[in-house]
Amino acid sequence: MRIFTSLALLGLALVCGCSSGKHYVRGRGDVGQFILQHAVSFGGHPVATNSLPTIGGDWRYVQDDYGIGILLASSQYQLVQDFVRAAFGPPSNSAGWSVRDFGVAIMVQKADSNTVVGIYPPMSDEKMAQGIREMTQDMEKGTR
Predict the structure, then answer these.
(1) Which residue ranges make up each domain of the chain?
(2) N or C terminus of the chain: which is more exposed, having fewer CB within 10 Å?
(3) From CA 16, how far away is CA 114, in angstroms rounded?
(4) 3-state secondary structure of 124
């Protein structure tokens, strides 16, 4: 759980743009297929890939060394949650789908007026610690 909490913090920092060097890219097409494609490329093991629902609408994403963050409208939350559940099965815990159980960590949360999706490959404790240090430094820069 400690690892997933750290990943969730990294994801929120990634998606919320705490780091000044990160820029969002406008997504195109079905965000569900984008989520599935990246989860599989990070080592995820879906239980289903066919007959999954399509998720349209506007969305943006940002990617760094720690994973991918996706922003959608808050109204998309349940559609995204249902999609990930259909593709990967029930979440490991209340935080989402864990690397240990699914080969990739996936977080789906509501934050302000957005649905936030984080997709994270397995990473070492050292890499996770480095990400948390970078996030902390970025947040401190933002408060000065």
Answers:
(1) 2-135
(2) C
(3) 10
(4) coil
65-88: pLDDT as tens digits:
888 999 999 999 999 999 999 999
Continuous segment of H or E residues that includes residue 72: strand 67-73
N residues, the chain = 144
Q: What is the pTM of this model?
A: 0.79
Q: Please name the helix (run of DSSP H) or strand (run of DSSP E) that holds residue 120, with its range, or none.
A: strand 114-120
Angstrom distance (rounded) from CA 62 to CA 44: 19
Collapsing DSSP states into helix, strand and coil, what is residue 117?
strand
CA 33 to chain centre: 14
With pLDDT > 70 as the criterion, what percentage of the chain qualifies?
A: 79
Residue 107 · residue 117 · CB < 8 Å: yes
Rounded-to-integer distance, Cα 129 and Cα 120, Å: 14
Using 50, 70 and 90 to split pLDDT, how confident is the model at 18?
very low
